[in-house]
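for the writeup, i need someone to sanity check this before i put it in the appendix. the sequnce is what the collaborator sent (i think, or maybe the updated version? ugh). structure was predicted straight from it, no edits. if anything looks off just tell me and ill rerun, i have time this weekend
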Amino acid sequence: MAEAPDQRTEWLAAVAAFGLPGAGRIGPRPGSIGDVMADSSQHRLTGVLAAAAASEAIELSPDEFSQLALAHEGAMREALLLEEVLLEAIGVLTSAGIDSRVLKGAALAHMVHADPAERCFGDNDVWVGSADVDAAVTALMDAGARRPVPPLSPSYDRRFAKSVTLQWTGSTEFDLHRTLAAGPYGFLIDLAELARDPAEVILAGRAVRTLPADLHLLHGAIHVALGDVDARFGNVRDLALLAARPSVDHEAVVETANRWGCAAPLAVGLRTTAALGHHRTDLEHWADAYVISDIDRRRLAVYAERDGRFRRQARASWSVLGWRDRLAFTRALLMPNAANRAARRARTAVSPSPSG
């Protein structure tokens, strides 16, 4: 008889909490080794599962341990390939005189995890300033990247897009970010602050620029709250690890979120860490007590379901844009250029968003 989905979810949460302060023990696994490996892969927890098994926090037979080791090796091969592509892309951007910041998986693997091998990721994310977006896309495409979906209008990428998705080295996905969220909250973020006080992580012996831990935490919470309808436990674990870092200034995180108008998604994202059952920080308790305003409830609602999400976010974005931007934004949505329309028709069954 198959195990109930909630049992598998609770077990995954316990795996995601492995090594966190006050985390409970990981109980007997629900389902076969194949089931839990598939679930862990979906939630980017293969590395954490392998670390827990190596520490004997999970009981596995020798054959099951070998299966998990092979799966982890495959995930790490993918991560190393992605890091190689990432370093190549950063080199292209640097040669073009473009400053950048590594975001999400590749950066967090080396910044907050006890061992980078714990953090699996499936694509690369890099931020550049709005003024550099067009030049960055051109430089990367000149170096061999491919853009599946052209922009809605000539100025859309640098003014309105959350990110531009490129493909490099076959199907390797590379997301070039202008901001940290789609929809109204993406337009509220002060992008100039993302360029200040960079931190560094070491990839293959090379220092690359990334966000400071405070901003990674804010970005991670926004991503968990707004990015996916069902958050991955790997991303929730990132939040818990960031919140527990002594160097993270909790008051500064809240102050920045308030200044941006993003306190609500910060709180919603941080509330997800309660599922891990660890010792939660003052910042996580702040999130539990935070009262969401009516306007934020309406804004958060546009991210709640996959179907029609782009249209809902576009409508909600209109209210936070200036008058000149509203006109250009609406024109781009209602009258996209011919290349964008043709690409979207070809990808209707694959991409839910016309912006790429």
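Residues 62-95 form the longest helix (34 residues). The mean pLDDT is 91.
thx in advance!!
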